[in-house]
Amino acid sequence: MSIFLRRIYFVFVYRLSWFFFAIGGTFFSVFVWAPMLILPKRERLGVLVRRQLQFLFKAWVEWMHFTGVARIEFDGFDKNFAPGTIFIANHPSLLDATFLLARLPDTICIFKPLLMKNPVTGPAAVMAGFVSAASGVDLIREATKKLKSGPSLLVFPEGTRTSPGESLGKLKAGFAMIADRAQSPVQLILIRTSPDLARRGRFWWVAPKELPAAFNCSIDRLWLPEATRSVKEFTDEVEAYMQARLDGKPA
User: Fold this and answer.
1) For the chain, how many structural domains are there in total?
2) Is 214 inside a domain boundary?
3) What whole-number distance in Å separates Cα of residue 199 and Cα of residue 218?
4) Which candidate in 27, 90, 113, 148 could, as Cys together with 134 as Cys, close a disulfide (CB 3.0–4.6 Å)?
């Protein structure tokens, strides 16, 4: 197959992948998750919904592999993670959360308020027990409460996708506050992707120049709870470590 025809194929499949994601999300939101919102004690269904989401995200990853549009690698995810772990990661791509939730066991994440209200993503997020990022104080309190009840938590400490040309943005201290209150271990995941794969400032439907795209998630350092460590010290330590690792320097 010529380079031109390969490009046409991969661009078509890339956009088709997002179409399937949108159609699948809309179907399950309208016919499965939204009706559950009226049920009494719906929070008991959180584990079931998280399993459903993980199955769908795994299917999307398998689709990417089958079509060849992306090479997605997970390094170190076969280990046993303790319940109530806080997983933190850098955030280069719009795909980060979906790919990570496909592999992390029983994990909730922090959702932007607009996504919580979105009719496509909102019902699933609410039923799965995701935490809204609407209020800093309430977020810390709610996330701590849910961590102590069993599930783990995925956090992108930058708060948004990494700016183009940077390897890591300034970390917010929320994850460290939650870890301090819940006395939870913090597990670092490092994500490395193709330079323009669903990056910040780039529309999701615009295919990256590099196709097949590359996406690698690696389990890295684990921090255990320390009573004598301040939130600021911990945040600064994690930021310095992540920056060094992503820049290929000694951590």
Assistant:
1) 1
2) yes
3) 19
4) 113
Read off the tokens for 160: 């948004």
Helix (H) or strand (E) holding 65: helix 46-67
Sign of the alpha-carbon dihedral angle for 159, 189, 204, 60: negative
The burial class, CB within 10 Å (0-12 / 13-18 / 19+), for 102 is buried
Whole-Å CA distances, 4 to 71, 148, 211: 20, 53, 12
Distance CA 209, CA 179 (A): 39
Average pLDDT value over all residues in the chain: 93
Helix (H, G, I), strand (E, B) or coil at 164: coil
pTM assigned to the model: 0.95
Does residue 129 belong to any structural domain of this protein? yes
Taking the C-alpha atoms of residue 183 and residue 161, their distance in angstroms, rounded to an integer, is: 27
pLDDT per residue as tens digits for the range 80-118: 999 999 999 999 999 999 999 999 999 999 988 888 888
Sign of the CA dihedral 5, 7, 12, 16?
Answer: positive
- Supply the pLDDT for residue 91: 97
